[in-house]
Design brief:
The complex is a heterodimer of chains A (230) and B (307). Chain A is α/β, with parallel strands linked by helices and 230 residues long. Chain A is built from seven helices and nine strands; from the N terminus they run βαβααβαβαβββαββα. In chain A, a hairpin with a 2-residue loop joins β8 and β9. In chain B, β2, α3 and β3 form a beta-alpha-beta unit. Classes of the chains: A alpha/beta (230), B alpha/beta (307). Chains A and B meet through α7 of A and α5 and α6 of B.
Chain lengths: 230, 307
């Protein structure tokens, strides 16, 4: 899933200062699961803003809503939601960066009489997995050319700090990465997993230069599936 | 001859070579390079010029290498994968060859979080093993990666690093084998202090026949103080310093630690010479370049071979 973290309150407060009608819009998908931008977090941010406004004698109005998925038109085409958006001076999106952008584009496409201002309340951190209660780890960089079949299901591009493709650098020590002693050395994990799978021979072949075109290096990407288009 | 460098010539001739190391200044002061070069001249056979070592901004490796050539020394230009994509690497290699640089070392590079610009974006377009393959392709096929022909001569003696003390330890000779397969000509190891572990590593390397496919230079660095030894043992990844070595330094007594460090180093250099598969020494006397002639004399490695 996409993992996000809420921005510091002071940063959010400075974004909404000067506006009198603020809509906080949560997202019911990834950021709800990682407890950064779902219903609960929308409610907490709403309370924090109201308390801060009250203390400063600011009578701005704060409304709270959650869309099931801010990155998809289907879940945003909701008349009461669009009414609230129209009424607001600023929409504070608690979605990931995808959701923030999509919400902004979508609202400005379907709402004619005003331009909608959407700002982010989260920092989108990575695509990762839930490892433990309250702990998520990055697992995929979206390089567009998966090599996991060769590396025992552990991604060296994402999980090696240097994205090395031909084994561990000289900084691997006691199974940890030199960049951060709390981080596993991806190549140490790969070697152990391939050993257990009896696939260590995978590492003998020279892994050649990676074609980064399918990654972000090739420019912003898009997927078009003609087979499912209507 | 692949490159025509003295380093290659001496290694091919079976000389036990010694390479030094020079860190360029954190600025433009050419005299710093010249002064360090003067200290190393006639004491070592070639000098590694580091490439923004520890991810700290310094005069470029290519420029400092050129200054070294002008001073009559032979540089080994280090190149890290951290700061350049394949386009910039090949362009710099053309420039290096044009300047007369004939040795280079392919490295991944210290991660930028350890340097003075930890907020920088890294590159890592290709890794050090792919870099070896790239330079070999340029040299032997006279082509860049995309197969375009190279205009003009391109020769280079291709080196790489190896850390026998990193983990998983048993995998390290296999990673070295991969560098050999990629086309490496010579290897310089990480600083060796744990001689027993290095011997075990070399036995594995010799059993695999890797020493016959590339020249292996054993890396050493003098321990200047007990504090430095303890710091390195605790904080530098892939450096193992046995307790008895640290104790020996400590027991040397006030004012005599540095001399003891040099004594230990010279003993190591002599021992390394006798280990099967070791073709030379890579002496990294960082910010101690002025003591290199004395170390080389004490270790019995002077005079150096001549062309």
């Amino acid at each position: 899933m996409i993992v996000g973290e809420r921005k510091p309150f002071s940063e959010i407060l400075s974004m909404v200062e000067g506006y009198s009608k603020i809509l906080i819009l949560g997202c019911g998908s990834c950021v709800t699961v990682c407890m950064a931008g779902g219903e609960e977090e929308v409610r907490i941010l709403g309370s924090q803003l109201r308390m801060a406004f009250r203390r400063n004698g600011n009578n701005a109005e704060v409304t709270e809503l959650v869309a099931l998925r801010q990155c998809d038109d289907e879940y945003m085409e909701d008349a009461p939601l669009l009414e609230k958006v129209k009424e607001a001076d600023i929409v504070v999106s608690m979605a990931c960066g995808v959701g923030v952008q999509h919400a902004s584009t979508f609202f400005n496409r379907v709402i004619d009489d005003k331009t909608i201002r959407v700002v982010p309340a989260l920092n989108t951190t990575f695509m990762g997995a839930n490892i433990d209660v309250g702990e998520w780890h990055e697992r995929c960089l979206g390089c567009g050319d998966c090599v996991l079949e060769k590396t025992g299901g552990i991604c060296p591009i994402t999980r090696c700090a240097k994205s090395l493709l031909n084994g561990p650098c000289g900084g691997s020590f006691n199974g940890k990465c030199e960049v951060n002693k709390d981080t596993d050395c991806a190549w140490h994990l790969i070697i152990e997993r391939l050993d257990a799978l009896g696939e260590l021979d995978n590492l003998k072949a020279l892994e050649m230069y990676k074609d980064w075109r399918p990654s972000h290096s090739g420019g912003p990407r898009k997927t078009v599936r003609e087979d499912i288009r209507i | 001859m692949k490159s025509g460098s003295n380093l290659e010539r001496f290694l091919e001739r079976g000389e036990f070579v010694v390479t030094g190391e020079l860190g360029p200044p954190k600025g433009t002061d050419v005299d710093v390079v010249k002064e360090k070069a003067a200290m190393l001249k006639d004491s070592v056979d070639a000098v590694n010029i580091t490439d923004n070592q520890s991810a700290t901004v310094r005069m470029s490796s290519i420029a400092a290498s050129k200054i070294l050539i002008d001073e009559g020394l032979e540089p080994t230009m280090q190149m890290v994968a951290r700061d350049r994509n394949r386009i910039a690497m090949m362009a710099d290699l053309f420039g290096a060859a044009a300047f007369g640089i004939r040795n280079m070392l392919c490295l991944s590079g210290d991660h930028q979080v350890f340097g003075n610009h930890p907020e920088a974006k890294n590159v890592f377009d290709i890794d050090s093993i792919q870099m070896i393959h790239m330079v070999k392709t340029m040299r032997d096929e006279h082509k860049v990666i995309c197969e375009d022909e190279i205009e003009g001569e391109f020769t280079m003696f291709i080196g790489a690093a190896c850390n026998p003390f990193a983990d998983p330890a048993w995998y390290r000779p296999h990673r070295l084998a991969k560098k050999v397969e990629a086309g490496v000509d010579f290897i310089q190891t990480q600083c060796i202090y744990d001689m027993n572990r290095f011997r075990a590593f070399m036995k594995h390397v010799v059993d695999m026949g890797l020493h016959e496919k590339c020249k292996i230079l054993a890396g050493v660095t003098p321990l200047k103080s007990v504090g430095m030894a303890r710091y390195m043992a605790a904080n530098v990844s892939g450096i193992i310093i046995p307790d008895d070595m640290i104790n020996r330094l400590r027991d040397a007594g006030k004012g005599k630690v540095a001399a003891e460090g040099i004594k230990i180093l010279c003993e190591q250099m002599q021992e390394l010479r006798d280990i099967e598969g070791v073709a030379g020494i890579h002496l990294m006397a960082i910010e101690w370049e002025h003591r290199v002639p004395e170390i080389m004399k004490m270790a019995g490695f002077l005079p150096r071979p001549t062309v």
